[in-house]
Amino acid sequence: MQNIWFIGRKHIEEGKCHSLIVSSQQCDDSGTGVFSVGIRTHPDAVLDAFSLVDGRRFFLVITIFTFKTMFKNKNWKPLFIQVLTVIFMIFFPFTKVTLEMDFKRNHDDRMSVVNKINEGAITPNVPYNDSIIHLPGEYQGVSKGGGDILIEKKEKGMKVLFFTFRGIVDSFSGFVYSSSGERPRTGDFGGDFNKVEKLDEHWYFVSSG
Predict the structure, then answer these.
(1) Can you give the pTM of this predicted structure?
(2) N- or C-end of the chain: fewer Cβ atoms within 10 A?
(3) 5 in the Ramachandran plot: left (φ > 0), alpha (ψ -120 to 50) or beta?
(4) Residue 129 DSSP symbol
(5) Which tens digits make up the pLDDT trace of 97-135?
(6) What angle do CA 169, 53, 51 make, to 5 degrees?
């Protein structure tokens, strides 16, 4: 016997176990399958593995095979795990957690960019738009969608937008640094904001479009 993680077709024969379920199954010499933490299969088992790039299709495939396994073997554990997974996917705030991690992880680098703008070391450098700065290589990761940031200077101070999503026209989201602490308003960076959330002193998250 050996431990193998795979996605495959579940089929139990005499002395063999072929499976296509992301789960754990132990097959003994009699061909009996028992779910556990890892997959244990007969050395002669044939694996029909494949790759899935769409998470929804992946989940659908697993759900189908879970029900097939449940009715064939009267094993309710896979269904219980599937239900818990669905509940987790519905209620866990993936986007919020991801944004919070991004903000904290890249905060120092973004502040470094802001300081360099104040010092004049980084200036607008895109010929067709004097409010766009294409960041140097070491700072490319702090703004999504090509490593560009937007800058606006007004009487009350300066605002800098670091993209977390960059669509077309006024469809975007990102972190805004406001030197005066002023809350971003519709019209800033050409946006029509449907969400403005304060994250920290001088920092806001905005979503437009």
Answers:
(1) 0.60
(2) N
(3) beta
(4) B
(5) 889 999 999 999 999 999 999 999 999 999 999 999 999
(6) 165
Task: Name which of 4-13, 21-30, 94-103 the model is least confident about.
Answer: 4-13
Is 165:145 a contact under the CB 8 Å cutoff? yes
Token pair of 199 as six digits: 């994250």
Segment 52-85, tens digit of pLDDT: 345 556 667 766 776 676 667 666 676 677 777 7
C-alpha dihedral sign at 198, 200, 203, 206:
negative
In Å, how far are 14, 171, 192 from 187, measured between CA atoms? Answer: 70, 13, 6
Phi, psi (5° rounding) for residue 200? Answer: -165, 175
Burial (Cβ within 10 Å: 0-12, 13-18, ≥19) of residue 142:
buried
Query: How confident is the model at residue 90, as a pLDDT?
Result: 77
Give SS3 for 74.
coil
The Cα-based distances of 137 to 118, 144, 177, 191 in angstroms read 19, 13, 21, 27
Extended beta strands in the chain, E state:
2-3, 11-13, 16-18, 25-27, 33-35, 40-41, 132-134, 148-154, 157-166, 172-178, 193-200, 203-208
| Angle 124-130-182 from CA coordinates, rounded to 5° | 85
Structure tokens at 35: 């779910």
